[in-house]
TrEMBL record:
Source domain of life: Bacteria
GO molecular function, one term: DNA binding
Ranges of residues in domain HTH merR-type: 1-70
PROSITE patterns: HTH_MERR_2
Keywords, alphabetical: DNA-binding, Repressor, Transcription, Transcription regulation
Organism, scientific name: Companilactobacillus alimentarius DSM 20249
Protein name: HTH merR-type domain-containing protein
């Protein structure tokens, strides 16, 4: 049996919450001794986590009690309604996040000059991503780009959300760029087709970044500048290079006229 403090710790909640739930008839201890001390079974943890989860979603205790009293079939119907509300909230928050990300990018755009590396704070962003291609030739880029947007939806090209490539390029090695494996990526608030597609996360954090012209020569020159910048400042970066468009107008090689090359700085 678990003491109330032990059950609270196991469920990552408070002793006060468990007392309140008991008093409100939502979650009772398995037993109480003659001194009134509450004791719980381990099996009760799952019910408690369900209650805490519903409460975090904004359901009032009366609604949670109602769910507990219903047959399993009715509970499923109610949970589907809850899930639909969650999906709506996620869509709303995703739209807000897109606006915030655009404003952050716009702020960086104002400060940046071509081929002048800097450290910039970037938000967490979830991207749809293509399969991985073996090299960065014009032919490979065009083929993968067309395949990816055919899956996603052609209208996704025009929605203004962040897009670009994720390239496997450790050590900011410019000489390896032409043969580096890459994926096409697009901010995940867009998937009009509703097809199931893989996603990948760009973590929030400080990034070593440089703005470059969209050409092989421009990217290679930018990589060399960025590597020197990181070496001079003793910055350790991850192996993935985010190669992101600075506008939604795509011109050649599936990208805008200028691009950001970005590496997450390791702590």
């Amino acid at each position: 049996m678990l003491k109330i403090s032990e059950m609270a710790k196991l469920a990552d909640t408070t002793r006060r919450t468990l007392i309140f739930y008991d008093e409100q008839g939502v979650f009772h201890p398995k037993e109480r001794n003659e001194k009134g001390y509450r004791y719980y079974d381990y099996d009760q943890l799952y019910d408690l986590l369900f209650i805490l989860g519903m409460k975090n979603l904004g359901l009032p205790l009366e609604k949670i009690k109602e769910l507990q009293s219903k047959p399993n079939g009715k509970i499923i119907d109610e949970l589907i309604n809850v899930q639909e509300n969650i999906d709506k909230k996620i869509d709303e928050l995703s739209k807000i996040q897109t606006v915030v990300n655009k404003k952050i990018s716009a702020g960086s755009e104002l400060m940046a000059k071509l081929y002048e590396p800097m450290v910039a704070r970037r938000p967490r962003t979830i991207f749809w991503c293509s399969r991985k291609e073996a090299s960065c030739t014009d032919e490979d880029i065009a083929r993968l780009f067309g395949e990816f947007y055919k899956q996603l939806d052609k209208l996704a090209l025009m929605d203004g959300n962040q897009s670009g490539f994720l390239t496997d390029l450790p050590e900011i090695a410019s000489e390896k760029y032409p043969d580096a494996a890459f994926r096409v990526v697009k901010a995940s608030s867009t998937n009009i087709s509703r097809k199931v597609m893989p996603k990948i996360e760009k973590p929030s954090g400080d990034y070593a970044v440089v703005k470059v012209e969209n050409s092989t020569k421009g990217v290679l020159y930018g990589l060399d500048k960025l590597k020197k910048f990181c070496d001079d400042k003793h910055l350790l970066v991850t192996t993935d290079m985010w190669q992101l468009n600075d506008s939604s107008t795509l011109t050649n090689r599936g990208a805008s006229d200028n691009m950001w090359l970005e590496y997450l700085i390791e702590k």
